[in-house]
Amino acid sequence: MSIRALWIVPIVRHTNTDLLQNSIVLRHYPLIEKKAKLVNGEDYISLPNPTEFSNALLFELGYRDEEKFIQTRDTCQKVDRKPVFEVTTSTGTIWPLVVVEQRGLLFCCLPLVPENLSTRPNLIQIPGVSLGFSLLCGLADFLRQCPSTEVSQRSADIHLYLNTAAPFGRISDVNCDTVMAKMYNKPSYLPRAQKQPSWKPVLHKGKNTLYLALTECVRAVQFNKENIADTFDLYGTVTCKSELEVALSDITINLAYNSQESASPMDNLLIHPCVQSADCSMLQQGETKALPRRIRFTPPTEMFTLCHYTAAGLKELPIKAVYDMKMTDNRASLMVQLTLCDRIKNAFEYCEMQIPFHNRGVISNQDSSVTQGNTLVSPDKKILVWNIGQKFSKSLIATLEATVIFSETKSASSFDDPFCKDQNAYAQLFFKISDFTQSGRCIDSKSIQVSPSTKFKLNTVHEYLSAEYKIWNSNGDVLSSSIPMTLLKQPEDI
């Protein structure tokens, strides 16, 4: 669980050697390098100089000669194992190189492989790969407020960070918050009777706060055809951030329902490793009752996803849509009708429909009529955008009728989709509603318990938004799949 070297390389598409030498940040570990020589023997590959490494890395990732097809780099037969790459230099092939791209910078590290590199063990058998990836993510988080052009000026801070997170190349801590706490020697006012875990080296000082956010998403594909059923599913996550002035806090929350009548029961629950116990009973066959779930956990210092869940028994779409479009030469005539379900809260943070036109020229003119909101054309002139607004009318129906005219010449960035031709097209809906979930799932603030008992400020957020919400043109052909009826039958019926 050690690394041989670490680099921070700026993404530049020219070969200015002086710029690369001044911008790259390098840290290598002679002790780990000596171990690599002993393990690999004659197969040992030495580390290249920083300039050669950065040029080889940018070439391998496609930032050099991107307009040319390089057989060894761009062939589809090459197996992609991101974020692990192999880079060829004059000293040999460097593998396994872990690369994380953030804000115009490439964070790279070379883990020590405990076996001879000639055998190329599976990546899952190399612990340094996953730990190296976590270390790079933490380092990127540490530099998140630093402009990419000033990273080289903070080399002293970076070296101090790495001395704390990976002393002598051995990874000991990958959490950015705990590493920074150790770096700056923040005092811990903890009574001797209490034990403090190593993953929480300092206590939070300030107001006690507990943040819980329940985010629910809906995915849907609508076809508006008699022989093809619409498909949709509902899933959600609970995110937590705990800032309490205690060494170890034990928190218990209830995932309840606003109303049992309209609630959709939870059929899957995936929990974070910090959860100590959870009421995860699965639905029995024929059972439709929605029961609350009680979760007890010890939160880490950072914000994390407490659990994922899916909701069963979703009976209706939040917004039923009909998309009717016909093409005649370079002209498209379309009509869109949206119907909001009466059980959905009629108060949106945003609600927008995008109607892309693939494999056609740019939009030269559009004439539209809407019952609410307004329309505009995207900057690349390939998408008609309908801003519906923050609320549907009393009828809960919104309608768009438009005529779109295309130029005969295609733009240089034209998207070539082999399926979206002629009448085959789709529209995509984006929306978000605050303080609402379609399943009725909510965080019961009155049932939250914290041990040891302490006063804290509770912030809860509930939000409902669209994930991939597509409506296919009812006049075109669509790609769809269906489950054979034999798989839908119960065993006793076969």
Summarize the structure.
By secondary structure, the protein is of the alpha+beta class. The protein contains eight helices and 23 strands.
Mean pLDDT: 85
Q: What's the count of strands? A: 23
Shape call: globular
Structural classification? alpha+beta
Q: What is the C-alpha radius of gyration, as a whole number of Å? A: 28 Å
Percentage of residues assigned to helices:
10-25%
- Strand order, largest beta sheet: 9-12-7-6-23-20-15-18-17
| Number of helical segments with 4 or more residues | 8
N/C terminus separation: 54 Å
Poorly predicted runs? 18-22, 483-494
In terms of DSSP E residues, the strand content is: 35-45%
Largest sheet, in brief, is: 9 strands, mixed
Topology:
Blueprint: E1 3-10, H1 17-23, E2 25-28, H2 30-40, H3 50-60, H4 71-74, E3 84-89, E4 92-102, E5 105-111, H5 127-142, H6 155-165, H7 176-183, E6 209-222, E7 231-243, E8 250-257, E9 266-271, E10 275-278, E11 293-297, E12 304-311, E13 319-328, E14 331-340, E15 350-356, E16 363-370, E17 374-377, E18 383-387, E19 397-406, E20 426-434, E21 441-443, E22 449-451, E23 457-472, H8 485-488
Parallel strand pairs: 6-23
Antiparallel strand pairs: 1-2, 1-5, 3-4, 4-5, 6-7, 7-12, 8-11, 8-21, 8-22, 9-12, 10-11, 13-14, 14-19, 15-18, 15-20, 16-19, 17-18, 20-23
Helix pairs in contact: 6-7
